[in-house]
Amino acid sequence: MNLVWDNLPFLLKxxxxxxxxxxxxxxxxxxIGLVVAIARLKGNRLIRGIARVYVSIIRGTPLLVQxxxxxxxxxxxxxxxxxxxxxxxxxxxxxxxxLSETFRGAIQSIPKGQTEAAYATGMTGWMTxxxxxxxxxxxxxxxxxxxxxxxxxxxxxxxxxxxxxxLLRSAQLLIAQYYVYMPFFLGIAAMYWxxxxxxxxxxxxxxxxxxxxx
Length: 214
Known about the structure:
It is found in: Cell membrane. The chain is mostly helical.
């Protein structure tokens, strides 16, 4: 494992890009997921249909294919994205579809009586959603959101296929230099595990805090 320690700074730089892609993609995925969930619950027939088709297509096709479509396919239409930007776009669109289902289920789990009570006090639909429904839905959704986040952290390895120098790509470059496989694969596996464990602990703490509030 000496090779891993000797090249740890290079691998840590790859881990940084892994975290960067994960956090940024998850941030925009949260926005997309919330918008799509509300569209499916509150939108008219056309909007609900579009939202359902989006979720169906994204969930029914491989993430790697989606990455290739964004990075390579859009070039056919004059849209050229850098590897990192393409990774953000593809992963955000992908995780947004999964999070929309999480949010939709969480929102639907809130008793309808609370909505009716909010309307009775004079709240508008938006005020009810923002002040009553979404805070409670966030508590319900935090656990599955955490699982999605951990999954996204690991799935960032796929963007190595479009030359983003994240953790897996960094290991591949070192393997090409030293012609040794196992130490680097074991090393990055340990790094993925450490990052996943840390984020799980953070999300558990957030979930406990929300449980105290609501």
